[in-house]
């Protein structure tokens, strides 16, 4: 380490050579107490054998050295105050309470908001406007409120109740039967419509680069877009859009219009994802695209056909049937078809190699020659499923450099670990 520093390489400051277990632990605690003062973020401390000869003797497993171990620090926790609770409306009409916090420095960034999820969550934690609360970042990333401190509560505070009308459109808001979510029932809620268009254009769906939150809201506010199908008529207003500068000048407008044109050729799984059917995400959409030749076949699918698909349950199937039973869904799909959006499943037509069918993969770390998204698409193209968390149902963990806790859990559960080259051997 000293030699590297002499050559001009940046090395971790204040590294220490320890001779006893007590010294090791004392330094772990010292780093934990001062880690937020560092100029870079860390989530743990690493203990390494200092002798290169001993390292050679100890050796390595196929994945990790036997001469090093990491200690992970718990998330930093701090007190702050809930200054307000606001209601956000999502693309499916879900009303989500959001705590506006007195800004507090936490895990290297300033935190001023945290989701309160639903009424049950707020009631269970007894969180009210004006409360002093304990906050942390889950996984050092997502702000969350752990609990309120009732003894610091100001007199006169009241339980917060999510309203029974949508704060954006005024339509009734009803709680789901057998669920915790409260949803706006309005069919013309502008906020829902904006979020649906943003999701339709997102990377996981139709992947229309340039149609982000600000552009979508501007185009919808000006009346150029009312639903997904209107996106494909924007080229008719090119000169107006450039003049108004809603999505930038000429180059920005043309880039968006070109991205829209390219999206017409997407395979049907991206369109199914973009429709925003409740409980149907990217993975489920791909399964549908493998088993239905076109959108018309899906529109007329029966309960028996859908419930027989891999990992499809009763709730998801009923959500799909309900979505396609709506008259406005049929009208929307007809307009998308008339706009030249692809309605056929190339995946089903190709009858691709299904050698990974029934296998569930979890990806972690940085792969040598492809992104994790590219690896996910490759696995799915061979019939495999990609999950975000390791469980007893995981078939393989695909691990790259800087793999984290998912790799550790997989090793604990005895789940096979693959490198990128191992995956390619499976496929070849």
Please describe what this structure looks like.
With 428 residues, the protein is of the alpha/beta class. The chain has five domains: 2-72, Dna Ligase, domain 1; 77-152, OB fold (Dihydrolipoamide Acetyltransferase, E2P), CATH 2.40.50.140; 190-263, Orthogonal Bundle (DNA polymerase, domain 1); 268-350, Orthogonal Bundle (DNA polymerase, domain 1); 360-427, BRCT domain (Rossmann fold, 3-Layer(aba) Sandwich). 37% of the residues lie in helices and 18% in strands. It contains 18 helices and 13 strands. It has helices spanning 2-6, 21-34, 52-58, 119-125, 190-201, 213-221, 238-244, 250-263, 268-274, 282-291, 295-299, 303-307, 314-325, 327-338, 346-350, 372-381, 405-413, 420-427, and strands at residues 44-48, 68-72, 77-89, 95-106, 109-115, 132-138, 142-148, 173-175, 182-184, 360-364, 385-387, 396-399, 417-418. The strands form four sheets. The protein has a five-stranded antiparallel beta sheet, with no helix packed on it. A four-stranded parallel beta sheet has the order 11-10-12-13, sandwiched between helices. A hairpin with a 5-residue loop joins strand 3 (77-89) and strand 4. Helix 9 crosses helix 10. It is globular. The two termini are 42 Å apart.
